[in-house]
């Protein structure tokens, strides 16, 4: 099990933040064996399909290059431009091969770890110039692993090359009996196929190295539980900071809620424990809505605002508790409380008209389940 510098085991999978930071530092899974395989196979494949045409062009250019005018040897002003033109022709002929190898060399790493550009990885680091650290890296477990892979490649490639050469030994012996031109083309054709088969031998090493590099990269990014907790604190904030933020949010919400109290038609109280402020405008509301609610000190503040703005307060303990538990701010009163709230509003409207015969209604039906917070929530969802 991997451990960090403090001796703690890295048992936790890397988080998205850890992986993102690793990519920013240039730490992505890479397989040199896979890159080598793709470049060699691409080059061999190109030579199989286009090697004849490429060889013919180079042969023609070589023949032209050796066919020189005698005066050219004695004219240095013409000789150098001629040499440059011949080099240019050769590079132009080989350009498709070079372009293919360049593209494959870029795509190989992308297929394993994705495209990634890291300025941090390109920045010079003085610790890399430390000879002691260099010696330490030479004798590290990673260096031993690379040595093992190199030896494995040597053994596998040597075995495959020996088997291929043995299988074509008869053809190689008969090359001396062929005419020179045919022997040259035959040798080139055999060399291309031998190169392709020997390159394909690296498939075995790449098939082992790619999964290992992906596993090793993930292993290096693993985190201890303490690192996971520290990252959680950095991303989501420390508990005390989050608590302070929640407190500020609650205070802001409370201030917004209190600003709505003066718009209420009635404040229903417990009388001291709970308080809820209700408004009803028939022209634009289907049912009464809850503007504010509170318990304890918040309820006292709602009652004080109601008195300050001459809003009628009605003591109806069961109704106040039921509304408090079933209704969120801005929501309509649930259907199970329509009758009770309607009778309270009717009473309030009569008081505002100074009706001398008005009396507080006593029949305010409130289902018992509305008085329990859990039952109230289920009942409110069922009535909406």
UniProtKB/TrEMBL annotation:
Classification via InterPro entries: FlhB, T3SS_substrate_exporter, T3SS_substrate_exporter_C
Bilayer topology: Multi-pass membrane protein
Compartment(s) of residence: Cell membrane
GO CC field: plasma membrane
Pfam families: Bac_export_2
Highest taxon above the source species: Bacteria
Residue spans of biased composition, Basic and acidic residues class: 7-30
Signal peptide region: none
GO BP annotations, alphabetical order: bacterial-type flagellum assembly; protein secretion
Region listing for Disordered, in residue ranges: 1-30, 358-384
Broad class of the protein's primary localization: membrane
Alphabetical UniProt keywords: Bacterial flagellum biogenesis, Bacterial flagellum protein export, Cell membrane, Cell projection, Cilium, Flagellum, Membrane, Protein transport, Transmembrane, Transmembrane helix, Transport
Bilayer-crossing regions: 34-56, 97-119, 150-168, 190-215
Family: Belongs to the type III secretion exporter family.
Function: Required for formation of the rod structure in the basal body of the flagellar apparatus. Together with FliI and FliH, may constitute the export apparatus of flagellin.
Protein name: Flagellar biosynthetic protein FlhB
Organism: Marichromatium purpuratum 984
Gene: flhB
